[in-house]
Fold these 4 entries.
Entry 1:
Amino acid sequence: ALKDTRFAYDTPWGWVVVGGTESDTHDKNDILWLVELGGDDIYEGRVAASTQRAPLSICIDLAGNDLWRADDNSPTQGAGVFGAGVLVDVAGDDVYEAASMAQGFGVFGLGLLLDENGHDRYTVQSSGQGCGLFGAGLCFDVQGNDQYDIQEYGQGFGGVGGGIGIVADHQGKDHYKAQPYVDDGNSGTVR
């Protein structure tokens, strides 16, 4: 729930929201522009991702140790699908978790995730962390000791149609893991 919302308005092209400095949970779809001033916030679902209603979606978080999570297969966390999705997180030790199409993913569009500071953890199952198909997916981290984990199609993957995928981390002792999964048919995913 939004405890400290300074401004929220539903336009024909999506929501425009300015959050305050307390910890909030953001779970609205169709975000055109979101600026969060601080707090340890939780972002759920399709955040910083283009939609049919909001072909441009920009989310900027200025402070706090935030959790960005999406359990379904909807685009999120800097995903541009027939549009542009931009996520900028300025500070804090953040956690990014998604099923697919996240963390700098573009298909017929531009997806950008830029994290400027902090020791961050990025986890996505498929198609993320700098993955482009007929588009561009860019995942940039400026500094901090970061962890990247993906199972397939990511960490700088440029696919069909001249796709561009870039993952770039400027500073820190970073760890990258790309490991496919195998379903044994009985207990689910086995690594």
Entry 2:
Amino acid sequence: GVLALGDPAYDGPHAIKRLPALPGTKAEAEAVGTTTLLGADATESGLVEAVRSQPRWRAIHLACHGIVDVENPMFSALAVTPDAEDDGYLRALEVMAARFPADLVVLSACETGRGRVYRTEGIMGLTSAFLFAGAPRVMCSLWKVDDDATRALMTKFYERWNDGTPAAEALKQAQAHVRGQAKWSAPYYWAAWVLWGLPD
């Protein structure tokens, strides 16, 4: 199955910093996930518990805000719902200390492919953390992405991938689908998405 997190509650009682809501991520998670964590349930502890509920997931899809720390890339984070136990920031360091057993992790958030370049390691950040944590391939973004165009792209990607199309080709077809719509034809809307890791 596909474990999908979306629409985190950024204005709850435990919020440290107000982040703008991402209403499109609810529909995105519902469209692609067979198991969903939404709103108040989209917490770090809820995600870890859900990941552990299966030996391996076909995909783990995280639709939320991405926060990049280029100077300290292991503090780059995905912003989920804060609660009494966690501050709502799933940092790269925490990802590396956990396990994310899935054939694919999709970081459906802004700038998740960014990080700091180390001569011996390449780009360190969220993407490399999920690879280290057990995902053989990670889809990520290179810049700030549009909410609606991303939802359309991700929905089309899973439609193709679930039909047996290899992940790289499914992404290519999803990008072509978004590019083919006049309002999203500019590269800003579809070209940010890249796939890291192994072929299918």
Entry 3:
Amino acid sequence: MPNAYDDIWDDTFWAAEAALLLAAMSPLLQAAALTAAKNAIASGVAWDLVNTAVLAWVKAYTEKVVEEITKTTAEGLAEALAAWIEQGGPLDDLVKSLEPIFGATRAERIAVTETTRAYAEGNKIAWKAGGVEKVRWFTVVDELVCAEICAPLHETVASIEDGFDYPDGPGIPPAHVACRCYIQPVVE
């Protein structure tokens, strides 16, 4: 079921999540299936036929299960983020709601990254509708600001349409995982 926040999700994040999960699960499922196949060899089936069939099954099954797990995880994140935005609570509330899905460390990193993305994208949509053509990048100006990407962008101006130039850009915040930067409209 689509919701109002569907257009803010970055598909590259979920593709990376799926790739990590696939890389972690494939060897485990392959080992389990091959062990079961070796035990079945006693029936007289040729090992090379079993091995080929097992590997084909593992590849197809793992891709399917990773797709479903990733989809379920994305839906859980979407629901938690939407509820948090609607309630207007502190970021710690969002982190706590994500901990059962991701664990404490990843929950915090995802909460920071995705709230940064949600507000930047939502503001961009609203500002463009209001005729804003340029935005200014701001960091939170503390010791945690990324020196390689974010610090050099602080107070720079870019087209709202084209965004800012950074390694995974051009775009708007977040520039990386746990990015806490934000943009403001430039009104002339």
Entry 4:
Amino acid sequence: FMTLNVSALHLGSADFDARLLELVGRCGLAPGRLIAEVTEGALIETPESVRAMLERLRSFGVGAALDDFGTGYSSLSYLHFLTLRMLKIDREFVCELNKGSNTSSTRVVAAILALARALDIQVIAEGIETEAERDALLAMGCEMGQGYLLGHPEPVRGRRMPHPPPWTETLEA
């Protein structure tokens, strides 16, 4: 799959879904392989219109991910408000995993994983930079992650991207 960060501005555009699907079609990517990532910030201003846009995209197979999960005030409410394919655990929690197995961050990550499993939502841990973080996530059952331990940004077809995201990888060593 491929994820795409989508801003509140994008989601507020009435024809965003049509333009995105047209672009996906031109690239030859099946819509079911695309996941639109939104942050809680994109949901705060116009939650109903964002939900409607994500539902229209979902009707064509495009999934939705809630990025930076765990950092907002009402992230849990979005789990029943949106039909999500994926949660991305914020790196703030991941970097704390270096401190051992009995920290509040470890318990939060374990709770997010259990909640996601119960709701049949995939989880990606963001910002994995050390083997200790990767090992802790694997021990908790987190199967996917992204970060510099797993891969560094690369130019696309010889061109440098202005701000490429770290690649998403499976966490298996």
